[in-house]
Write a structure and sequence with these properties.
Pfam families: Trp_dioxygenase. By secondary structure, the chain is mainly α. The protein has a single domain, classed as Methane Monooxygenase Hydroxylase, Chain G, domain 1, CATH 1.20.58.480. The chain is built from 13 helices and two strands. Helix 3 (62-91) runs antiparallel to helix 4, helix 4 (95-119) runs parallel beside helix 11 and helix 10 (216-225) crosses helix 13 (287-295). The longest helix has 32 residues, at 231-262.
Length: 298
């Protein structure tokens, strides 16, 4: 039998678990008096101080409501960052990194959609106890959401008036309004690659919402008819369809969460509430990519 202190015994300073307690390895840095820490890098003091419930007395569930919307805004910041980069890559005819950006956005979209299930734990009775303190604050006023929507092509210049009181927000939305959308950039890339994209599409007013162009359907039909020889374009079409599908799922979950919590009440921002959100499901980004499916034989 080996002695308790022989070569096979665990040294006191070696990693391990004893009495359900994990030892800290000797190499782990613990002195941050003059080093960058996790909290410092993330500016956690600022981030975690940004949740300021205003109900009095403070209602337990208001923190959930605030965090739900703040985390959504953080994800929207990243979505906008990725979509803008995807547009830049497409302008440079560099499709591979553009698709990587889109793939990341798709994962973020799934997270945002699943996040509605957390807010759905808020019952009508609970929300009613602090809804009044919101005044006219509403997700409708999210400038990042609007910039994402514009970057995907669903533009509406009248929305700018919502952000007139906030010059920084207004600048972000206006930039997205005036820039070619992701779809515009893709169609321009296809034109440069030799696909027969109509001139009226390439020269359109990019500040207007995208509307259906029947002349594009044959172009996409040819791409789908021979995926192997049109793989880059074919793959991008499918990635864009994924983006729209995910966006519509997010919109639907938003609608159903609102109906679950406030029923048919009007929105805090003055909208009709659920009916207004339901009409958003009629909006589209890439209608020709859905229309082409009817034209594919089989």
């Amino acid at each position: 039998m080996a002695a308790p202190n022989d070569d096979r015994a665990v040294e006191a300073d070696e990693p391990g678990v004893e009495a359900n307690t994990r030892r800290i390895e000797a190499s782990v840095v613990t002195d941050f008096s003059d080093r960058m820490s996790y909290g410092g890098y993330l500016d956690l003091d600022t981030l975690l101080a940004a949740q300021r419930p205003i109900s009095r007395p403070e209602h337990h569930d208001e923190l959930l409501f605030i965090i739900q919307h703040q985390t959504t805004e953080l994800w929207l910041k990243l979505v906008l960052h990725e979509l803008e980069s995807a547009c830049e890559f497409m302008r440079a005819d560099d499709l591979a990194p553009a698709l990587k950006c889109i793939a990341r956005v798709k994962h973020i979209q799934k997270t945002l959609t699943e996040q509605w299930s957390v807010l759905a734990t808020l019952t009508p009775s609970e929300y009613a106890q602090f809804r009044g303190v919101l005044g006219n604050a509403s997700g409708f006023q999210s400038y990042q959401y609007r910039a994402v929507e514009f970057t995907l092509g669903n533009k509406n210049a009248r929305m700018l008036q919502v952000f007139e009181a906030d010059p920084a927000a207004s600048a972000v939305v206006r930039r997205a309004l005036e820039a070619p959308s992701l779809y515009d950039e893709f169609l321009r890339l296809l034109a440069r690659a030799g696909y027969d994209i109509p001139a009226e599409v390439l020269e359109r007013d990019v500040t207007k919402a995208w509307t259906f162009h029947a002349d594009l359907v044959p172009v996409f039909a040819a791409i789908y008819a021979d995926p192997e020889h049109n793989w880059a374009a074919y793959e991008t079409c499918e990635e864009l369809v994924d983006l729209e599908d995910n966006f519509q799922l997010w919109r639907f979950r938003h609608l159903k969460t609102v109906e679950r919590i406030i029923g048919s009440k009007t929105g805090t921002g003055g909208s009709s509430g659920a009916p207004f959100l339901r009409r958003a499901l009629e909006l589209t980004f890439f209608p020709e990519l859905y229309a082409v499916r009817t034209e594919i034989p089989g």
